[in-house]
Design brief:
The protein is mainly alpha-helical. The protein has helices at about 1-5, 10-20, 30-40, 45-60, 65-85, 95-100, 105-140, 170-185, 190-215, 250-260, 280-310, 320-325, 330-365, 370-375, 385-400, 405-430, 445-460, 465-490, 490-495, and strands spanning about 155, 160-165, 235, 240, 245, 250. Helix content is about 65%, strand content about 5%.
Length: about 500
């Protein structure tokens, strides 16, 4: 019986019946709002910071191609996400897709993984928001006291030791987390509107960088185009293809593995399928459009920055703003910093918006306490209790703990989710070929297999420590599942012959 439950799948019919219930989220998002959520999640501080580090030390001007390769890997996964999101327009994303294809245990693992991805990602983003906010305050001669400006514990990546800073709490990070939580509880329409404003500000800044910076491009700076080569793959931290520099792989492919994480977030659109006005059409549009827009902007920014400044002279900490300072436009630094704050705010909003939706889907299946995590506010139509719970959890992480030690869990967790979704499309095509698919992933099985292989390749290129942290988190999740989830699972109760009440509306009376 245990084995049967672990690999039992939730039927697509039950999933769609549940989606028609009254205890649903408010359908308020159109294709523009969904695309804006995707762009808001993807474009953050990374475009202003990570590009400088990667161009200087890993790929040179060939980082443009790195972004194309990483974007292509995401496109494969995005097409698979779009098919599932159009078939099953409910909250849950990869968790829901895995439950329909791979069974309950795999669904639990991926749901547990997604909650960590969004929570740790949000905590990290809030930490970065605090740094940029304090930098802007400094421009006006204002300063947050050191005791309240950073976490009491940080992680030194060079020595791999925890260090006590003497501070009490990262207060700006905690405050912005509480503000975002309040916005999210209020409603999805307000959240989407706030996000759209932030996206407009940061996209305007990115276009400023591209259009103004283009006048300062010196074609000679593109030579050599690939100073570190075109390789750079590694296998569990050991480089296998291309060159190695300072103990780490370098080259165009190494750059793709490094900056792939700039794309994290587009998958969050699928967690909002239940809030889309026309999910079968709008969610695929939002996923694919946001990914294409972000890839174009990323490549264009790298082309401008590596054209303005020689790759080995690009500032590793603030490549974009420093590039404008080097060509005699120091005032642009403030514009870029202010845009970075808007960019990080929208990323934080989408990260914290997505986590409660995964918990909501898990609660409906009984895997986490339903009375708490599945309750939708009667007026705001948001999962308000789980939103507040995640807000508190994120504020503790970002205010007190060493985010650096946890950040890479988000990276490997996201890649893991992508692999599962691509595999789920292949399984669903075999097990349920006649299901209605408003959007069909093209070139199956080529696209899903390509998505799985490229994402696994990038996973293998991550340091061994990432794998160890992921394994620890998943083992902890399995412990929670066998203590609580397995016994309370609605599907498990049905298999044991117990009475189960699902959130499915009654059929309409005759004549309606």
């Amino acid at each position: 019986m245990l084995k049967k439950q672990l690999f039992a799948v939730k039927s697509l019919k039950v999933l769609l019946e549940e989606a028609a219930g009254d205890n649903r989220l408010k359908r308020a998002l159109g294709p523009v709002a969904l695309t804006s959520l995707g762009v808001g999640a993807v474009i953050g501080a990374g475009i202003f910071v990570a590009t400088g580090e990667a161009a200087n030390t890993t790929a040179g001007p060939a980082l443009m191609v790195s972004y194309m390769v990483a974007g292509m890997a995401c496109i494969f996964a995005a097409l698979c996400y779009a098919e599932f999101a159009s078939m099953a327009p409910v909250a849950g994303s990869a968790y829901t897709y895995a439950y329909c294809t791979m069974g309950e245990l795999c669904a639990w693992i991926i749901g547990w993984d997604l909650v960590l991805e969004y929570a740790v990602g949000a905590a990290t983003v809030a930490n970065g928001w605090s740094s940029y906010f304090q930098a802007v305050l400094g421009k006006f001669g204002l300063q947050v006291t050191e005791k309240l400006s950073k976490a009491p514990i940080i992680f030194d990546e060079k020595t791999h030791h925890f260090i006590f800073t003497g501070a009490y709490v990262n207060l700006p990070a905690v405050i912005v987390t509480f503000i975002i939580t309040a916005v999210l509880v209020k409603g999805i329409s307000e959240s989407a509107g706030f996000n759209s404003l932030m996206v407009f500000i940061k996209v305007a800044a990115v276009l400023f960088v591209i259009l103004v910076g283009a006048y300062y491009i010196n074609p000679a700076n593109y030579e050599p185009f690939a100073p570190y080569g075109w390789g750079g793959l590694s296998f569990f931290g050991q480089w296998t293809l291309g060159e190695s520099h300072g103990g780490k792989p370098v080259g165009m492919l190494a750059g793709a593995a490094l900056i792939f994480f700039s794309y994290i977030g587009f998958d969050s659109i699928s967690t909002h399928a239940e809030e889309a006005k026309n999910p079968q059409r709008d969610v695929p549009i939002g996923i694919i459009a946001s990914l294409v827009i972000c890839t174009i902007l990323y490549v264009a920014v790298v082309a401008v920055i590596t054209g303005m400044v020689k790759y080995n002279q690009i500032d590793r900490g603030a490549g974009v703003s420093a590039a404008f300072k080097q060509v005699g436009m120091p005032w642009a630094e403030f514009v870029i910093a202010a845009a970075a704050i808007a960019g990080i705010t929208s990323v934080l909003l989408v990260m914290m918006l997505s986590g409660p939706r995964v918990f909501l889907a898990m609660a409906r299946d009984g895997l986490v306490p339903k009375a708490f995590f599945s309750e939708v506010h009667p007026i705001f139509k948001t999962p308000w209790k789980s939103t507040i719970a995640i807000g508190i959890f994120v504020s503790v992480l970002t205010g007190l703990l060493p985010i650096g030690a946890l950040l890479e869990l988000t990276n490997i967790g996201t890649l893991f989710a992508f692999v599962v979704v691509c595999g789920s499309v292949l399984i669903m095509r075999k097990t349920n070929p006649g299901a209605h698919r408003p959007f069909r992933c093209p070139l199956v099985p080529i696209v899903p297999l390509a998505g799985m292989l490229t994402c696994m390749m990038l996973m293998m290129s991550l340091p061994v420590g990432n794998w160890l942290r992921l394994i620890f988190w998943l083992l902890l999740g399995l412990l929670v599942y066998f203590i609580y989830g397995r016994r309370h699972s609605l599907l498990g109760k049905e298999l044991r012959g117990e009475a189960v009440v699902r959130d499915i509306p009654p059929p309409p009376p005759p004549g309606h």
